[in-house]
Amino acid sequence: MALILHGEGDFRERLHRRLRGARLLCETARGSGWRAALIHWYGDPQKIPWRRICALTNRPKMPLLLPPGMELPPDVPLRSVYPEEFYARLTVEAARQCLMQGGRSARRGAVGLLDPAGRALWAPEELSMAAGSFLVYTLRPERYRRLGEQLLQEKGLPLLLAESPAELSAAVLTVAPYPTGVYRVPSPVITAQRSGVQGKPTVNRLLPELPLSLLEELPPGVETLSFLGLAEETGAGRNFHRFPLKECRIDGRRAAFAACCKELFGSA
Questions:
Q1: What is the pLDDT of residues 116-156, one digit of tens each?
Q2: Residue 236: what are its φ and ψ, rounded to 5°?
């Protein structure tokens, strides 16, 4: 069983010194655009010596990527992370690629943005070359009003605020970068992992086309996208979310991403 940590060099050295010969071992792993400290526990997963791990680092709340299905005990002062920002940027990149594949009519249409918390102010810039205008539903409209003025002045792109998710029906495609509660949107939606957004249809579970050379470098047993996402978020990796999209789920069924885009927009 492997625990994946983004650790500093001195932490790994202390771990090697203190745990020599134990069932808890550490190694340094590096690849193209990432590096990590891998902690292996060769024993009962219920008896992982969390306190020993905590004692070996000077960093409280150290970011830790756990294997799927494992949870960090609440009294352990480490930080189990989920690369939410990475998945948000992957979601917006998927929308950009889909709009570009959709042809001129798709790129001239209004792009919807479902962002109740007002966190995705960066998204319109990412989509500006693939959108004719923006229609935003948010519970923080003040955050988008100034952005709308900037977009109109600098890029000639209107940004309008929707009063409800139902008004996103005017969008050719809506993107929901961050997990939310249940929202029903009457337009095609590309949505984040772990989100309750439902569109017509709903596209999620995005899988980029990763080079074989990169996949061969990854430590065995890691959840690939979460690992690369953590590497990107912590500054240890390159922009992995920029790879072309390969597959997705559309209303629960697995599909090639190119076929998904064709289904949404028809032939380019």
A1: 999 999 999 999 999 999 999 999 999 999 999 999 999 99
A2: -90, -10
Q: Give the whole-angstrom CA distance, residue 82 versus residue 190.
A: 19
DSSP assignments along the chain, one per residue: -EEEE---HHHHHHHHHHTTTSSEEEEEEEETTEEEEEEEE-S-GGG--HHHHHHT-S-TT-EEEPPTT----TTS-SEE---HHHHHHHHHHHHHHHHHHT-HHHHHSEEEEE-TTS--TTHHHHHGGG-SEEEEE-S-HHHHHHHHHHHHHHH---EEE-SSGGGGGG-SEEEE-S--S-EE-SS-EEE-TT--EE-SSEEEEEEE---HHHHHHSPTT--HHHHHHHHHHTTSS--GGGSPEEEEEETTEEEEHHHHHHHHH---
- For residue range 149-190, what is the model confidence (pLDDT) as tens digits? 999 999 999 999 999 999 999 999 999 999 999 999 999 999
Residue 147: count of CB within 10 angstroms of its CB: 18
Residue type, 16: H
Q: What is the dihedral of CA 31, 243, 69, 56, to 10 degrees?
A: 30
Question: What distances in angstroms separate CA 67 from CA 39, 163, 168, 237, one per listed residue?
Answer: 11, 41, 37, 19
The residues facing 28 across adjacent strands are 37
CA angle 83/85/86 to nearest 5° reads 65
Report residue 20 as tokens: 């020599």
Torsion angle of alpha carbons 94, 98, 100, 102, nearest 10°? -170
Residue 89, φ and ψ in degrees, nearest 5: -70, -35
